[in-house]
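User: Second chain of the day. Same drill as before.
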Amino acid sequence: MTVGRAGRVAVVFGTRPEIVKLAGIARILGDDGYTIHSGQHFTPEMGQLFVDDLELPAPEIRLEIGGTARGQQIGAATSLLDEHFEHCRPAAVVVQGDTNTVLAGALAANAREIPLVHIEAGLRSHDRAMPEEHNRVVADHLSDLCCTPTETSRENLAAEGIEGNRVVVTGNTVVDAVDELLPDRDRRLAVLAEYGIEPNQFAVATFHRPENVDTASTLALILDELASLPVPVVLPLHPRTAARASAAGLHAALAQLVITEPLGYRPFLSLVAESALLVSDSGGLAEEASVVKRPIVIVRTSTERPEVLGTFAELVPPGPGIGALARRWIDDLTSVHKRLAALPTPYGDGRASERCFDAVRRLVEPD
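Assistant: Same format as last time:
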């Protein structure tokens, strides 16, 4: 792809899931693209570790917006991106998902009338209490090109008047990432050995959403439910969750779990693929579960990923339903895994990055 005098394609990210899901597109773009890291995830474990693990070149532009409130993050990132785009106008701006970085990238691109591409567009939880819902809706409506992971997300956009050439169904780039980066069985087992756990005899949990970790009683309830399971639970501890647990004095609850630092993508996938089941509030992990064929308890009251409900996932609010569902799956684990192994992921064939790249090329270089 030859971008020409207008500049290269700016790929903007700020969190671990964005890095994972944009890595394939960034690689295909090669010298015709460059990356901007907003710093929304600002610790080495949450940021640079993933860039290293995914074997991406270091971001050409680094912003420092982490550690502040949502409005401050969006405002600071928008201002810094606007300043950069004024002096170095890209051919297009690519953002992914529903983070504060996505909204800032969308606003800055729109302010400079630069073509905007939203990867993983069209997801809707219809829950206005979620900041992510506002981020993704605004990004979709500002975008010149919306790359949707499924027909369901395309239909969501059509219902809001976003259709025609502005929308292309690509699949989800997370499938590409898992297909490429999932270690082989021997390497997966080596990771399990580091934690003293056996295949299909442990659970993996992740929690980071404010509704689950910012209220001490809710976080305590979730940790107690995890500890009640009849298998060890590995919990890579998100910095936000670690801070909230410490402030709430939940050290004893954490001590009942297998706590790790945030992991690189390959070792994390190794644990996920060899687990009995997953318990999480992460949308990305719900998608990954459908690729590695593991059941997941989604601990939320709403989800923007209905495609996995009733097959790979069940939606459960914080409370005793978490342990009840997990134990039911554990009691029938061989059958559950066999059933899921026969189901295709609803998120595509692992070529989403190529389709997104082709769509960006058509946008930048119309016939």
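The domain at 9-172+349-364 is CATH 3.40.50.2000 (Rossmann fold).

User: Great, on to the next one.
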